[in-house]
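Feature request, filed as a ticket because there's no other form

It would be nice if the structure record came with a short human-readable summary line next to the tokens. Right now we just get the raw output. Example of a typical job, pasted below so the devs can see what we mean:
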Amino acid sequence: MTQTVLHKSNTRGHANHGWLDAHHSFSFAGYHNPSRMHFGALRVLNDDKIDAGMGFGNHPHDNMEIITIPLSGQLSHRDSMGNNSVIKAGEIQVMSAGTGIEHSEFNSSATEALSLLQIWLFPNKRHVVPRYDQQSIDFDQSPNTLKQILSPNKDDEGVWIYQNAWFHLGQFDKNFETEYTVKLKGNGVYVFVINGDITINDQVLNTRDAYGLWDTSSFKLKSESDGSKVLVMEVPMEF
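Raw output as currently delivered:
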């Protein structure tokens, strides 16, 4: 029987640091909720707004798969592997922290705010050599589809990570319907509504709501508004 969990947008952890306005779907930093530590291998889903010219100074990570998806604006990234890049809306960035990495992230604009999602997954392989990648996401060639943007496979569409996880991103017209089939038995799916209104099976979701499903092989998704944008994250429930 399908198991579900509903996380309404206004139940997330919230911290406003002035230059950073952050919402946490799971326990993070000063937000601690024993009932919301993670969803399977999905450990962090932070919805951040960063003021112009501000950001995170150099800091370390290890043994975590880190995915960044800018929603508006541009992010400057620099790391100990020698990468120095800008990631903008319409792109996805991934780092396998592995044995250890240091990096900094800043809003590259002096005038415009930056909005992004930062996502952490527990890896299925520890102490790997750190790696970095970023790719563009072209919705113009695939409207009204769930576009794969991440997988465990180097040769598949999108970026890849050290975990049996698949991410899909979709932007839909009103009344568009589709069905998502779970790719690996034992995985669950955490659906995050970036914008708009959608229905998962019979559950109505609005902007920044999230819905987790597991012990299921598929579910139906319907867009209830034009321009609905959804991130679908399939992850192992046991890892």
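Something like this underneath would help us a lot:
The chain has two domains: 13-136, 146-236.
The radius of gyration is 17 Å.
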